[in-house]
Amino acid sequence: MTHLSLHRHKERGSTERAVLDAILDDVLAGTLSTVVDGRPWVVPMLFARQDDRVLLHGSTGAGALRHVAAGAPAALAVVAVDALVVGHTTFDSSANYRSVVVHGHLEPLADDERPAALDALSERILPGRTAEVRPMTRQEMAKTLVMSLPITAGAYLTKTRTGTASAPDEATEAWHGVVELRTVALPPEPAPTSVAAEVPASVRDFAGARVLA
């Protein structure tokens, strides 16, 4: 595979593995893309980084997922928008962001690897939840496709923008600056069918770590 590189704003790009890991470990969802029957195919997916691979899962009934699991080239794109950068003109406006694109071929996991991989996915999204509920049944496992996307040098690229609005190159009284954005958690709401007396620790901890400071 040809090493990825940026053509514009090269200073925003990075191939440092620590930068890649930090973004993948902070963002919960990305978009998986491939080509199916000559047409583009893109789907949003939850994911988890585990060492040198990205874990993804879906239904075994999803034909496109079986397509990528069979070896079709794919790319996973992940982005976090951290702020709106309001310029003195709309042309000079932008956003602060962190993004990753990982290219490669997905590999379906063997039956003996899938339970641990699915637990790792769950723990990445909601730490502690696997200990609070029953394990997946054999039937549920049979309906679930688990894949890994290897993270290899040259097959990924990160891009970030930070900072405030650019200094105007013309006389202007237009306000310009930055509006920071944050993802926060609202108080947990039980489902109408939930009979549990209290919110479990995994949910409390997840929500508590994401309240608006």
UniProtKB/TrEMBL annotation:
SUPFAM superfamilies xrefs:
FMN-binding split barrel (SSF50475)
Any matching Pfam family: Pyridox_ox_2
Q: Which domain of life is it from?
A: Bacteria
Task: Supply the InterPro entries for this chain.
Answer: Pyridox_Oxase-rel (IPR024747), Split_barrel_FMN-bd (IPR012349)
The residues forming a coiled coil are none
Question: What's this protein's name?
Answer: Pyridoxamine 5'-phosphate oxidase
Q: Which organism is it from?
A: Knoellia flava TL1
